[in-house]
Specification:
The structure is a single chain. The chain has about 200 residues and is mainly beta. It has one domain: Jelly Rolls (Sandwich), CATH 2.60.120.200. It has one helix and 15 strands; from the N terminus they run E-E-E-E-E-E-E-E-E-E-E-E-E-H-E-E. It is found in: Secreted. Homopentamer. Pentaxin (or pentraxin) have a discoid arrangement of 5 non-covalently bound subunits. This is Pentraxin family member.
Length: about 200
């Protein structure tokens, strides 16, 4: 249980990452991924990377610059522009549904305009899920200059699209439905220079 704790990625650039283990029984037709990050990086960096053998960017949350997030599904992406960071914690949730191809993006508890992405696609279940690096091959192929440096917390993955109430609950760290990946019962393995520390502030 990592409640009120964070992963600190100490080096920049870094070869470190955290492997997450999720119990996925079948491919995903809907999902929501949420996380909180704190960094002063201005270069591109990867936050959440979910790769299958067929597609290295099966699900990817990527920040090419401070005022932009890219949300990938099946190798294609949509861009969400956000206010230039005030060097504070940023909470994001991204959800996607295959039937409509609707990609939803929530930033610090508020929804951004929805976009279309990969309608009819299915996300593979046999995945390597990493924090802090962007996979260019299954479980590897990292570019150090896409690595994350800073603090990550409150990582979740659900096999459904969350309701607006639950999206806001995720931002506020309130009670959440059972998840494939849950910060409160996370199965993970640290590779390299990543330290688990208490969160410094709420």
């Amino acid at each position: 249980d990592l409640y009120r704790k964070v992963f600190v990625f100490r080096k920049d650039p870094s070869d470190a990452y955290v492997v997450l283990r999720a119990r996925l029984e079948q491919p995903l037709h809907n999902f929501t991924v949420c996380l909180r990050s704190y960094t002063d990086l201005s270069r591109p960096h990867s936050l959440f990377s979910y790769a299958t053998k067929a597609q290295d960017n099966e699900i990817l949350l990527f920040k090419p610059k401070p005022e932009e997030y890219r949300f990938y599904v099946g190798g294609k992406f949509v861009t969400f522009r956000v206010p230039e960071g005030r060097r504070d914690w940023e909470h994001v949730c991204a959800s996607w549904e295959s039937a409509t191809g609707i990609a939803e993006f929530w930033f610090n508890g508020k929804p951004w305009p929805r976009k279309g992405l990969q309608r009819g696609y299915t996300v593979g279940a046999t995945a390597a899920i990493l924090l802090g690096q962007e996979q260019d091959s299954f479980g590897g192929g990292f570019d150090l200059y896409n690595s994350f440096s800073g603090e990550l917390s409150d990582v979740y993955l659900w096999d459904t699209g969350l309701s607006p109430d639950k999206m806001r609950a995720a931002f506020l760290s309130l009670r959440l439905p059972p998840a494939l990946l849950s910060w409160k019962s996370l199965s993970y393995e640290v590779k390299g220079d990543v330290v688990v520390k208490p969160r410094l502030r709420e």
